[in-house]
Amino acid sequence: MLASWLSVGKKLSGRVTCWITKAEVTETVLSLWGIFVYGGMDGDERATSERILLEPYKYLLQLPGKQVRTKLSQAFNHWLNVPEDKLQVIIEVTEMLHNASLLIDDIEDSSKLRRGFPVAHSIYGVPSVINSANYVYFLGLEKVLTLEHPEAVHVFTRQLLELHRGQGLDIHWRDTYTCPSEDEYRGMVLQKTGGLFGLAVGLMQLFSHWKPDLKPLLDTLGLFFQIRDDYANLNSTEYSENKSFCEDLTEGKFSFPTIHAIWSRPESTQVQNILRQRTENEDIKRYCVDYLEKVGSFAYTRQTLLDLEAEAYRLIAELGGNPELEALLQHLSRMYKEPGGGASAGQSKEPGGGAAGGQSKH
């Protein structure tokens, strides 16, 4: 029996090499691979195994999200005109990787809430959640293979590597109490946030006849999304309700507003000391938010967002215009433009109080 399984594995190994280099995915190979993975399991046993593996991931899926990345892909398809069947696979892959990365992020950040509900690892435990997230990464790769394009796996691998490089830098700065410069922060964001943006659009471009360079626009959008997220974490009522009050301060994260405060007031170490504490004390966090307002860090962040938004509109116009993408930008910009959008969360009377609502983290 062992010899026969080794024989199957050897044949599959050779086939997988062909798979990746030539994208020759067939139903037969996928079926054989399923047999190799699940062994002699019958259908019910396989379904039970799959349910156990995916339960933490499916727990996250049931929580209400805003599907921003799906909307972004659909907006870019205004230009790219990708066949519907390919577009749906790409959207599914992007959402799978995005949600799996959230499971890992919540562990790495010691988060308590995700979209207003307990994080998955507080229910299923860290080991099961890590395994589930990693499993979904590879399910995403399996789905990429069904696109049957020789460059698809290369795009997938390149962008996931970028995502992890950026995340690694972010964690390193946090855990070594090293405040990056604004330029270093922007470089990290282009890797971390831009990774999944680049994946979706990069895969779409493989199936499009429209070939302009979209990197400047993708970079601008990546910075806009992450800096907006940093701003919302410290300034949005909805964000505080969906996560927890000023969670980035408890995490000890060097976000865009705190980086500005630290470098613009080098004589003061207040922000660094608060971040180092990883405090959950809301009075201390409110004080820090008030300090960020006082030294102009929120005003600087809002202006940066306005500049990035204007640059995005300029690049969109150069590419011929895109009503769907422009509408998405307008919707996301309301959080820091509407009355109260710049009010300090620390000025609210209730824990988690703040200004206009923003999107949930990532």
Automatic annotation (TrEMBL):
Molecular function GO labels: (2E,6E)-farnesyl diphosphate synthase activity; dimethylallyltranstransferase activity; geranylgeranyl diphosphate synthase activity; metal ion binding
One Pfam family from the record: polyprenyl_synt
Transmembrane segments: none
Reactions performed catalytically: isopentenyl diphosphate + dimethylallyl diphosphate = (2E)-geranyl diphosphate + diphosphate; isopentenyl diphosphate + (2E)-geranyl diphosphate = (2E,6E)-farnesyl diphosphate + diphosphate
Record PROSITE patterns: POLYPRENYL_SYNTHASE_1 (PS00723), POLYPRENYL_SYNTHASE_2 (PS00444)
EC number: 2.5.1.1, 2.5.1.10, 2.5.1.29
Cofactor: Mg(2+)
Pathway assigned in UniProt: Isoprenoid biosynthesis; geranyl diphosphate biosynthesis; geranyl diphosphate from dimethylallyl diphosphate and isopentenyl diphosphate: step 1/1; Isoprenoid biosynthesis; geranylgeranyl diphosphate biosynthesis; geranylgeranyl diphosphate from farnesyl diphosphate and isopentenyl diphosphate: step 1/1; Isoprenoid biosynthesis; farnesyl diphosphate biosynthesis; farnesyl diphosphate from geranyl diphosphate and isopentenyl diphosphate: step 1/1
A single BP term in Gene Ontology: isoprenoid biosynthetic process
Biased composition (Gly residues): 351-362
Top-level lineage group: Eukaryota
Segments for region (Disordered): 338-362
Keywords linked to the UniProt accession: Isoprene biosynthesis, Magnesium, Metal-binding
Quaternary structure annotation from Swiss-Prot or TrEMBL: Homohexamer; trimer of homodimers.
Family, per entry: Belongs to the FPP/GGPP synthase family.
Protein name: Geranylgeranyl pyrophosphate synthase
